[in-house]
Here is the input.
Amino acid sequence: MAQAETQTPQQEILKVTRNDLPLSCPRPGDAVADLHPRVYLPIEKSGTATCPYCGARYQLTD
Ligand SMILES: [Zn+2]
Here is the structure.
């Protein structure tokens, strides 16, 4: 692995289902629960959402 990837390291996209709605970040049980105040993300609109606090990316998979 001597060569660097041209792609910048991206944060892993967290997959969520409609069972997880309403989507909040941090999600219940997340280890980063003390990272920022819980915020609800309107993922139903576009199928994807990015947390404005920590930059976590979510994708709705169903
Ligand atoms: Zn977050």
About this structure: Residues 25-26, 36, 51, 53-54, 56 surround zinc ion (CB under 6 Å).
